[in-house]
Design a protein that fits this description.
About 25% of the residues lie in helices and about 25% in strands. The protein is an alpha/beta fold and about 475 residues long. α1 packs across α7 and α7 packs across α8.
Amino acid sequence: MNALKTFNRYLLWFANEHVDFRLAEIQAILELYKIKAKWLEKPSPKPYWLVELPNENDAIQIASRSVTMRYIIELWGGATSMEDLHTELKSMPESKILQYCEEHLSFKVKVECYGNSQTAAEKVEKIDTFNYLPLKGKVKLKNPDVTFNLIEYWGMEPNNLPSKPYNVFFGRLIAHGQRDLITELSLKTRKFIGNTSMNSQLSLIMANQAKVQPGDLVFDPFVGSGSLLVAAAYYGAYVLGSDIDYLMLHGKTKQSRKQTRDKPRVDESIFENMKQYKCQNRYVDVVVADAALPPWRSSLVLDAIITDMPYGIRESAETIGSTKIQDGKHVVPENEIHIPSKIEYDFSKMLEDLFKFSLTHLKVGGRLVTWLPVLLCDYDPNELPMHRCLNLVSNCEQKLSTFTSRRLLTYEKIKEPELHEVGAFTVSYGAAFREKFYRHAQKLQKERAENRHNNREIVLSLSEP
């Protein structure tokens, strides 16, 4: 690597999970804070990215929102060997280092090895090789004034280690990412959850991809237990939701936690969750409503729509109507006080209604962030729903099983549609997803049973005298 000329280069160090979500989250944060970043290396599945930023405050802002990133350091040196790293550090102007080496500043050096393990003695030995740095303060391992990071990258194959690390880096810690929020908002300690509540990490990632900021109005049309609203409210947005499930919104469903499954819910609701995280002043309300028949005025304008539609697997997907059919259509009784939700809500129709709602109510520049279930054998990115007024910003995958995954799609509204466009918009993706899922699962189950039977026959034949 070339010698560093300025202090405007940084290294982002990521957690080793949800790798496919990193770039979409970081790009959204850069856009949110209007930060101009220049990638020194193309972002990749590696645990680190190198970036050039205008100033340290920009690095702090990125860390203040990212949950995929562990920390960000000001990069003082980077090389392919320890010898070259030392040479690079020694060539730096001393005046740029001295401000962090003063006698009143305590410090520590932390060694991070990716793809390899090292003993404490080996780490101390490496730290001692930096004794030429003019550090005058006291060593303090807990909460020091300045933390320096030595990072060794040994590659992505722990079973095929090289003789030495591929890259070594040294720099000053600027800020930690928001990984602590994952624990703070964890479902394990949340008062009200359901069977399909979104975990805190993915909820926060979705809020980041939606570029949620204080004062925004964020809506979830399939709100369930409100996990996505919790993340949005935590970032300062006013939150609103709807769901067709009356019992869920009123906290009257069966307990989801095994330990309390035999006990009725008491004081459990989305509002109680908001109170738990001190976000109740940003909670607008939730209403019982059918996403196929939204009750909202056309004048409603939303900054973001964040949702996870029911796939019909773990939770039923239904819409209002009667099972009676006339002229090939479900009959909706007139003048009824209550119309039950008995009609299956096909996923493609659900997706179509969500897009029409987004085209109508999202502001220009607002974002729709939603999940799409995928059968790996059927997935074709060219078949994803598209509209000229909604730009697909990112498409991130979370693997669920050997034959399924789900994709987090982020769309940004770039212009207002013509009146005729909304009504004419159709979606074919995801048609009969539930039936395809179970049919494929049964096929795999049958194949596995046949394989077990064949293997048993082979074992028996070999064991015969």
